[in-house]
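Example for tutorial group B:
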């Protein structure tokens, strides 16, 4: 997915020009994957552009850093204000994707992360449908990866650590090379975990099911949480439940959730067509309600929006 440059990037408390947002090649994070990040979206609403669930994302960033023993030199309020300032400075009135990054910078080499300086950057740019417009409308083809998702005692699965995405990248390569759109990974005990950058849901007999993050080693997703809320408000039963690969093959419907991906129907898993291969009624209802919520079209969800 190409990046469209914007004017300014927030770095360690100040807005710098896009081209000047650079770091030294000997930065610790580049060598050892020592960092944590977030992905946030802002959408155009009837009253202007608004960031979706900003505080929850920045709170998760701080939780990731706590797990990784990275001391972030900014408070939650300061980080939220910084996001708003970046969206505003770049005039992103039609919405954007926002990428906050905490990384260990230049000054120390060697595996020990503790002495390395901590840097924080926040960029924002317009970003289209992560898995393509066609995927959003017609669904994506999934492959169960031969790469296993992290064991939570090998990698802290509740943290969105930068280095952890080597695992996602390997699964993504395998899926794309084999002609699929995206990978589903199983956890160390063989349960369904998550995708390379999304959580997933199946629908069975009208009930929405998603793997519990603590058991399945999946990132606790903010879009997943949003969908649970929306589903309950629409009168559906939605719950966390462990699942195995055949639960995916035999689902009535299935879909992915993530900030970048949004809500994307799954058309097949390992070439087993899900349902009739078209986005099902529960998926399309959840998807359209999600888009109304992020675009400020449903009053009860206005608390999720931070106006810029
Ligand atoms: N699992 C993983 C592994 C993951 O990376 C994400 C977000 C999710 C689940 C869904 O979380 P949430 O966004 O809170 O619903 N992935 C981010 C990064 C994607 C990327 O390509 O980079 C995102 O969606 O912004």
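The residue assignment follows.
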């Amino acid at each position: 997915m190409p990046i469209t440059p914007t004017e300014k990037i927030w770095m360690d408390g100040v807005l710098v020009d896009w081209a000047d947002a650079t770091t030294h090649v000997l930065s610790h994070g580049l060598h050892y994957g020592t960092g944590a990040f977030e992905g946030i979206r802002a959408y155009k609403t009837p009253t202007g552009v608004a960031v979706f669930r900003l505080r929850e994302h920045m709170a998760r960033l701080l939780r990731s850093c706590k797990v990784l023993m990275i001391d972030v030199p900014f408070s939650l309020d300061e980080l939220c204000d910084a996001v708003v300032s970046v969206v505003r400075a770049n005039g992103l009135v039609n919405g954007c994707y926002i990428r906050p990054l905490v990384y260990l910078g230049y000054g120390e080499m060697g595996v020990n992360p503790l002495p390395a300086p901590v840097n924080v950057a926040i960029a924002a740019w317009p970003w289209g449908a992560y898995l393509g417009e066609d995927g959003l409308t017609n669904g994506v083809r999934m492959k169960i990866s031969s790469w296993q998702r992290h064991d939570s005692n090998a990698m802290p699965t509740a943290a969105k650590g930068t280095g952890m995405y080597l695992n996602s990248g390997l699964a993504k390569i395998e899926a794309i090379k084999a002609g699929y759109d995206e990978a589903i990974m199983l956890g160390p005990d063989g349960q369904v975990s998550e995708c390379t950058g999304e959580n997933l849901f199946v629908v069975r007999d009208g009930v929405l099911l998603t793997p519990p993050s603590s058991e399945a080693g999946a990132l606790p997703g903010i879009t997943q949480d949003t969908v649970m809320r929306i589903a309950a408000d629409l009168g559906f039963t939605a719950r966390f439940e462990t699942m195995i690969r055949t639960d995916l093959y035999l689902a009535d419907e299935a879909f992915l959730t993530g900030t970048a991906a949004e809500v994307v129907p799954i058309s097949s898993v390992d070439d087993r067509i899900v349902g009739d291969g078209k986005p099902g009624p529960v998926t399309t209802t959840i998807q359209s309600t999600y888009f109304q919520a992020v675009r400020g079209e449903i009053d009860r969800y206005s608390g999720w929006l931070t106006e810029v």
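The domain at 133-294 is CATH 3.20.10.10 (D-amino Acid Aminotransferase; Chain A, domain 2). Compare this with the pattern of hydrophobic and polar residues in the output above.
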